[in-house]
Each structure stands twice: as structure tokens, then as C-alpha cells.
TrEMBL record:
Record carries keyword Metal-binding: yes
Gene3D superfamilies hit by this protein: 3.10.20.30
Protein name: Ferredoxin, 2Fe-2S
Organism of origin: Chryseobacterium taihuense
InterPro entries: 2Fe-2S_ferredoxin-like_sf (IPR036010), Adrenodoxin-like (IPR001055), Beta-grasp_dom_sf (IPR012675)
Keyword entries, A-Z: 2Fe-2S, Iron, Iron-sulfur, Metal-binding
Length: 109
């Protein structure tokens, strides 16, 4: 089993040190849900299909995230509270290159 350490600041401003597995094909949205860092029904509303932006996060420290795809870019173009460092958690697949990632969960519309 291979794990990485990431920091996630919830919508209340509390920072959580999280251990996330790299061998379970999870994405950041699923990690946030599994640790219950956002109120039920306010994250991953579309099920991780890049269609709602409820899993939007602000990347504080980027150790090497994969490039943003066209679907993610298009969804962020329609979302609320978008910043230059916005990403969709459902599109960030947990991998060893994400060690040290720090994000803040964006406000829910």
C-alpha cells in the first residue's frame, strides 16, 4: 500500500492532515467525501463527472498536478467562486506525485 500526505482546508477554515492511498484509484473529491470534510450533498453532486463544480478546490501548494483537461476547464468557466488556482477535485486522481499537495475547498454555491 502506498500513501501520500496532503493538507485539505475545509469550508470552515480548519486544515486537516490527510493520508490518501495512491493504490485505490481515488480522486481528491472521493478523499474529501471519505474523510467527511464537506457537508453531505455539497460535494460531488454530479458523481465526479466534471458537470457541477461542487468539488472545486483552490490549490495552495502544487507539487506536480496533471494538466487540466478540456472538460474541467469548461466546467470551471461556468462555476461560481473560481480563482486562478481553481481545480475540480474529481479530476485530480491521487498519485505519488501529489505528495505535499495543499488545497482549500471552495465555497458551495
Amino acid at each position: 500500500m502506498s500513501d501520500i500526505n496532503i493538507k485539505i482546508t475545509d469550508r470552515e477554515g480548519v486544515t486537516h492532515d490527510i493520508v490518501a492511498p495512491t493504490d485505490m484509484s481515488m480522486n481528491l473529491m472521493e478523499i474529501i467525501r471519505s474523510y467527511e470534510l464537506a457537508e453531505e450533498g455539497t460535494i460531488g453532486v454530479c458523481g465526479g463527472m466534471a458537470m457541477c463544480a461542487s468539488c472545486q478546490v483552490y490549490v495552495i501548494n502544487n507539487p506536480g498536478l496533471e494538466e487540466m483537461g478540456a472538460e474541467e476547464d469548461a466546467m470551471l468557466g461556468e462555476a461560481f467562486h473560481v480563482q486562478e488556482n481553481s481545480r475540480l477535485g474529481c479530476q485530480l486522481h491521487i498519485c505519488s506525485e501529489m505528495e505535499g499537495l495543499e488545497v482549500e475547498i471552495a465555497p458551495y454555491p
